[in-house]
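quick one before i forget lol
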Amino acid sequence: MLSFHQLHHHFVGEVSAIDLRAVHDRDTLEEIRAGMDRYAVLVFRNQPFTNQEQLDFAERFDGKLHARTSTSVVTKNRFGNEALSDISNVGDDGKLLAPDDRRRATGLANRLWHTDASFVDPPGRYSMLSARVIPPVAADTEFADMRAAYDALDADTWASLEGLTVHHSIAYSREVLGFEFSAAEKELLKGAVHPLVRTLPGSGRRSLYLASHAAAIVGWRLPEGRLLLRDLMEHATRPEFVHRHAWRAGDFVIWDNRATMHRARPFDDSMYRRELRRTTTLDIEPAAQAA
């Protein structure tokens, strides 16, 4: 039996010692999924994954992996598998990326509040980030509980949001920062439409579904729609809804993209090396395809 230590008054649980590489039984996988329904973010310490072991666990845990990343449009994956996202500041040669490298430029958008793979359909469900190399300075990740943010809204706001849908585009979130895509690249990044409020199947809770990729509310004039999205983002990322995770080498963090947003905090990436690997599953029912 696993135990969960809650790290924030709304969400985030640190899980008792376990080697996820050795977890194949349905009961333990279901226990972790139940923890995800409760805490939305789970922290596992001392998980020495290889790339293939991480891919294998992600598929065992939740099925089909997301591989249509924005980075795959810009450059070739150095691991040879687009389902293993390279959340790092080094190139194929292992050296720090140059300040003007396109891979670094698109990666800077990770500092915006976002939810992984909201720009595809089906969208991302669980993301799993493995810390391989951590710099000797703070290079943290913040998470925001979108369920608690929804709960804190008043009944009139709940009613006004009901039925609204949003177009999510990763090209939009990058272009906000001045990143330029070619016409061919933009053709591959058309985006997807999703509800602004979602009901989470495992818990039955309601959750805002927001991200820096959220470009427009369908059917609304662009200025009004973007103002509403901005206001909701400001509300949802108030300090009382946010947890900051300080990475240690070997950390493995799983989060529910339907219930949270996250962002990377800045550090001197021109001096310090930082390497993480991310796998993201797609929100396809049933929840336990691979188990």
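fyi The longest strand covers residues 124-133.
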